[in-house]
Amino acid sequence: MNVRTLCLSILYEGEATGYEIRRLCVEGECSYFIEASFGSIYPALAKLEDEGFVVSRTEQQSGKPAKKVYSITDQGRAAFADELAGPLGDDMFRSPFLLFARFAHILPRDLVEARANEYLEKHIADHRRLEEAFAERGSNASDTWVINYGRAVMEVAERHIRSHMHELITLARAEPKKDAAE
Amino acid sequence: MNVRTLCLSILYEGEATGYEIRRLCVEGECSYFIEASFGSIYPALAKLEDEGFVVSRTEQQSGKPAKKVYSITDQGRAAFADELAGPLGDDMFRSPFLLFARFAHILPRDLVEARANEYLEKHIADHRRLEEAFAERGSNASDTWVINYGRAVMEVAERHIRSHMHELITLARAEPKKDAAE
DNA sequence: CCGGCATATATCGGCCCGGCATATGCTCAG
DNA sequence: CTGAGCATATGCCGGGCCGATATATGCCGG
């Protein structure tokens, strides 16, 4: 699922600038399964415009840099629908923390405890954000379905970490290996 | 979490070839949160050898190409521990299917139904693989912790899809737009 | 007997992330 | 009042990584 398709998906629902698209990826209700950075969004948008799938209009603003507002064309809508109709590509999940956790037994207990707590905090924050999105309910039924899937998974993940992180910490090396600690 | 660290993590537990490392990423019990392809493993291994973190020995085989078996050095173990002690980087989850699902209402029902079924099948397969890894139990306590986390999340994900995919299919466009079908 | 698959290593094009540069005006602390 | 830092906004670039492909070989099934 490339950034091109992601941009079209956002523009499908309304016009936006590159900056706003990025914000929606990072802070939006779908941020838990979508990601993109400036370095890929701006070139993607430029290429999409070349191909006629989006059009842009430059808007001067007082006090702020001029913005380039993109909107999707009929051609773009068709291309997006085609993309969704094609083969989809697998989900992917990567977790540096779980790699870390696999080696809990060779790591100092302090470190494992700190990282486990950070991990829990992050899960709580992500989960809360999605619960808020659910409560706001500006979205349509499809969006709600997706949000509910996320809520179900996050709820379990958070609860599992909360009630089992202690076991992981117990696995860690008791003596914190004091040499040359910062 | 770069591929270098991933390679070290696998070699930490025993020697392996590039090919085997790749297999462990794709089929191993940790495949649900780790991924790497040849295109990154082989260069990473070569660089790791330059730096003295791993050493290799070439093993001739009759009927098969010669293999280069890598093993980790003490220096490599230290570097790996350092890496784990450093800042960890966020988990990431991306789902082309969920992006697809958000637009169920503009897509033909047949397509949504087919994709939803594929998605469920894939989840069942992934879940089963992890249940098998849990049953085998060659692994240590840390590995078991990680596997149990994965089991908890996958169990809920699978169950949620199974019991709610129908709602998503109902959202899809009823008439399949017969023009110019494949 | 030939195609496909498994083993095994390696490269290459291209996508994408993260950091940086650039420009500007606002707000808040010193 | 001044300047540090942040938010808005666009864009480039180095480097990391994926996926496809090349190369070599032998086994198994149709």
The beta-strand count of chain A equals 3
Helicity range of the residues of chain A?
55-70%
Estimated structural class of chain A: mainly alpha
- In terms of DSSP E residues, the strand content of chain A is 5-15%
Question: Which value, in Å, is the CA radius of gyration of chain A?
Answer: 21 Å
- Main interface by residue count: A-B, 57 and 57 residues
Quaternary structure annotation: homodimer
Largest sheet: spatial strand order of chain A: 1-2
Instruction: Output the number of helix runs of chain A.
Output: 7
Instruction: Outline the biggest β-sheet of chain A.
Output: 2 strands, antiparallel
Anisotropy-based shape of chain A: elongated
Mean pLDDT of chain A: 91
Roughly how many Å apart are the termini of chain A? 43 Å
Poorly predicted runs of chain A: none
* Helix/strand order of chain A: HHHEEHEHHH
